[in-house]
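Today's session is about reading a structure prediction critically. Students often jump straight to the picture, but the first step is always the sequence itself: look for stretches that repeat, for charged clusters, for runs of hydrophobic residues. Only then move on to the predicted structure, which in these notes is written as discrete structure tokens rather than atom positions. Here is the chain we will use throughout the hour.
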Amino acid sequence: MRTGSSSLAAGAAAPGLRSQVLTLGRARALESATQLVLPMVLVRLLPVEEYGQYRLFWLATATLTLVMPLGMPRSLLYFLPRLPREERATYVGQTLLVLAATGLAAALLLSPANPWRPAAVAALPWPWLAGFAGLSVLTTTLDYLPNADGDLAGQAWSLVGLAALRAGIVTAAALAGGLPLVFAGLAAYALARCGLLLVYVARRHGWPELARVRRHLRPHLSHAIPFGLNASLFQLRRQAELWLVALMFPANAFAIFTVGVTQLPVVDVARQVLADVTLPRMSALQAQGRHAQLLAVNQRANLAAAVLIFPVVAFLFAFAREALAVAFTPAYLEAAPVLRISLLAVARMAVDASGILMAFSQRRFVLGTGAVLLAVSVATSGLGAWWLGPVGAALGS
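Below is the predicted structure for this chain, in token form.
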């Protein structure tokens, strides 16, 4: 009887889960489509070397945006579903407080105040770069907060609207003034995104008392930081190869390499959406002691990811040169070997257990394994770049 009731509960949950995945999936798909189409537009508007500088601007920002949030925004998917509505403002407020501080630190790292900036980064216009990076760290909250509040429709509109705004600003700037105006436009976009975040928080949660924020901050950080660092270590494995190529080779070689490691919208959407939708549900099931249902949710998510990821990887591996010629012009055909190597790493993303580890708060394990894998990845990319050139750097994936 118990097994039957568990199966019934899992079956009843499935339609709701599918609906949530579809709602957020459509939004993530549109967001990722703009992220893929925008580089296709820019490679036709900017010379190869300038496109390399644009990609370095994004790389510097993306690296800090991965590390500096300390896992606080995504931890809201864990905490808010467990809390009564009147206590949620405290966790939202302390997330913004931490990210305001780390965002400022990110801006300083990219400014002349940091004497250890790489020469390639120092050549970029630092006011736009520092401002964009600092605001980007703060506004990572907007990528998770509506979903953590249970407002999937609001999360979807936020993703699609901001992606369209960014694409419009960057394209218009590239057409009107070239690369310098693109940098200024990105900083303006980050400012608009910050304004939207503050309006949302003020209307949905209000601003908690500072004393309450300080009282709950330590347990929040103790949970968020290990998982945030682990997620950062995973993403940094993907970015280490980019940094090695950016620092070891000319801007045009870096531009071609970035095309080869372009993230695939279908893969990113599949993993991101499934994680965003299942983590709050898995967190709630773990709190209730319903571990069998928790595992069933994760199994369904992995099966859905595999169905989407494997056909895309197989097609692009077989037709890498043709796909690059159509999408990025024949000037970037040299990226085909890099693309094929990267696809091998993409295929393994069909299987994921990070949601289970986060639901059970396995902080030390995920942090330790992430650190070891990052060290191995950087060493492999470095040796590959030294031995085989930019193509070898992709081996670290």
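Discussion point for the tutorial: The mean pLDDT is 85.
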